[in-house]
Amino acid sequence: MLQALVVKIGTARRFHAEVVTILRQLVKGAALAFGVVTALGTSGFNVSALVAGLGLSGFVLGFALKDVLANVVAGALILSYRPFRTDDHVSVAGFEGLVTEIDMRYTTLQADDRRILVPNSTIMTSPVSVFKK
């Protein structure tokens, strides 16, 4: 139900389909986590220790996965600002090709005989050339 609401709001505000999909997945994960913590609290489990442990675990995971998180944040920025779109021909960090997919971690370029996955953090920190069609 929450996912449908996110999709409805996203389409009404004319968000890009990729952004709506990401928001839908985030809402689903947050609702699931909230439901698990609530169910554990209702069943008598001490959730304050669990929440404190999750905070510490989040810090450790954030530090361990900083490169992955940098790619995810860069992916969100790329999907928001749209410096290029799917089917654009781009050159970035020494790679050149047709953009076939933009997701949260990688941007996929299709060259002559190969598929190139460029991390989004590389795209955000490198000059990007977008060629006219």
Task: Describe the protein's topology.
Blueprint: H1 2-12, H2 17-42, H3 47-64, H4 66-81, E1 89-92, E2 95-102, E3 106-110, E4 115-119, H5 120-125, E5 128-131
Antiparallel strand pairs: 1-2, 1-5, 2-3, 3-4
How many angstroms does the end-to-end distance come to? 41 Å
The pLDDT mean sits at: 87
What are the segments in which pLDDT stays under 50 over at least 5 consecutive residues? Answer: none
**Number of strand elements:** 5
Q: How many domains make up the coordinates?
A: 2
Succession of helices and strands: HHHHEEEEHE
Q: Report the radius of gyration as a whole number of Å.
A: 19 Å
Helix content: 55-70%
* Beta-strand residue fraction: 15-25%
Largest sheet: 5 strands, antiparallel
In DSSP terms, counting alpha (H) and pi (I) runs of 4 or more, how many helices?
5
Taken from the alpha-carbon principal axes, the silhouette is elongated
- Which structural class matches the secondary elements? alpha+beta
Major sheet strand order: 4-3-2-1-5
